[in-house]
Amino acid sequence: MNIEDLRKQAKEEIAQTGTTDKLEELHIKYLGRKGALSTFLAEIPELPNQKDRRKAGLLINEVKNEIEAFLQNKDRELKTKSIQAAASSSFDITEPGLPAGLGTSHPLTQFREYVRDTFSKLGFEEVSAPHMESDEYNFALLNIPPDHPARQEHDTFYLPGERESPGGRARMVLRECLQRTWFGKQ
Questions:
Q1: 8 A C-beta contact, residue 123 and residue 131
Q2: Residue 26's closest CA among 59, 66, 57, 68?
Q3: Which residues pair with residue 125 across a beta bridge?
Q4: Is 140 exposed, middle or buried (0-12, 13-18, 19+ CB in 10 A)?
Q5: Half-sphere exposure (CA, 13 Å, Cβ side) for 70?
C-alpha cells in the first residue's frame, strides 16, 4: 500500500464512522505510535538519497495533517449530532434527577439483627440497661463489701445523684432478674 492509498482509505473510513469510540480507534490505527503512518516514517531512512527522503517526509506530514483534520472535523460533527439529539429529545436535562435511595444498614447491623431475630425465635429476648448504674446494682446486690478496692474513687466514677458508674453485663442480668421476680431481694 502506498501513501495515497492510505490517505483515501483513511478518508473513507473516517467518513463512515458513526461513533467517537470508533473514531478513536481510527486515530490510533493511522496516527498512533504503531500506526500506518509510523511505518512509512520508519522507512524514510532507507531511501537512497536526501531529496527522496525530504519529499517523502513532506508527503507523509501532509497526509498526517489531512488525516488529523479529517478526524477533528468528524469528531466535531459527531459531538454536534449528539448535542442536537439530546436537545431534540423529550428528556429535559435540566430537570432534577430521581431522589437518592436511603441506602441499607451496615453489614454488622444486619448481622446483629439476624442474630437477634434467630435467638428471639428460640425464646430469647433482647434487653437493655442504663449506661450508668446505682451503688445497689453495681456492688450491694453482687455482694461486694463496702471496703472492696473496686469501690474506691480511682476505680469507680461517682456522679451526683443515684447513678454512679458504668454498668456491665452482670448488672444488666441482675436488674432483669429482679424485675421479673425470678429471685427476690435480700
A1: no
A2: 68
A3: none
A4: middle
A5: 23
- Three-class SS state of 163: strand
pTM above 0.70, yes or no: no
Q: What is the pLDDT along the chain (186 residues), one digit of tens a residue?
A: 688 888 899 889 988 988 888 989 988 888 888 888 888 888 888 888 888 888 888 888 898 999 999 999 999 998 888 888 777 777 777 888 888 888 899 999 999 999 999 999 999 988 877 777 777 777 788 888 888 888 777 777 777 766 566 666 777 777 777 777 665 554
The residue extents of the domains of the chain are 3-88, 107-179
How many whole angstroms separate alpha carbon 62 and alpha carbon 58?
6
- Residue 41, Cβ density class (10 Å: 0-12 exposed, 13-18 middle, ≥19 buried): middle
CA–CA separation, 148 and 66 (whole Å): 94
| Cβ atoms 11, 71 nearer than 8 A | no
